[in-house]
Design a protein that fits this description.
Elements lengths: L6 H6 L7 E4 L3 E5 L7 E7 L15 H16 L7 E4 L15 E5 L9
Antiparallel strand pairs: 1-2, 2-3, 3-5, 4-5
Bound molecules: guanosine-5'-monophosphate (5GP) and zinc ion (ZN).
Zinc ion binds next to helix 1.
Length: 116
């Protein structure tokens, strides 16, 4: 299931160090190495799926798992009252730089819209 040379598969498998804040059998969440906000956590499925556009029908349940983890982590980080952002960058024009699907949980400061 893990893809050789995928940095996020290696993080999920413990081969590369990261600050993991949550994990279960389907989802792993860890601190972004280059945080863009006081809270910046990446949430990924353990399954190697390159991008949201590559999801097959059976994969979509993972999005519910990821959202559930995001809401719980946001609460744990104290973001529930002020709010937060959950973002997926898909493909090159979407700004995706790591080809293992991931969601950014961002919060702790006023975020602007539209994004750049
Ligand atoms: P993307 O641009 O693909 O949406 O987001 C990739 C994110 O992964 C970026 O926010 C970047 O800082 C983060 N990132 C890239 N490499 C690593 C790494 O090795 N460890 C961690 N913790 N985050 C990483
Ligand atoms: Zn991967």
């Amino acid at each position: 299931m893990a893809q050789k040379d995928c940095i996020f598969c290696k993080i999920a498998g413990g081969e590369i160090d990261s600050e993991i804040v949550y994990q279960d059998d389907r989802v792993v969440a860890f601190q972004d190495a280059n945080p863009q906000a006081p809270v910046h956590i990446l949430i990924i499925p353990r399954k190697h799926i390159p991008s949201l556009k590559d999801f097959s029908e059976e994969d979509f349940d993972l999005l519910a798992d990821i959202h559930r983890v995001a809401v719980k982590l946001a609460d744990k980080e104290g973001l529930t009252e002020e709010g937060f952002r959950l973002v997926n960058n898909c493909g090159s024009q979407g700004g995706q730089t790591v080809d293992h699907v991931h969601y950014h949980l961002l919060g702790g400061r006023q975020l602007t819209w539209p994004p750049g």
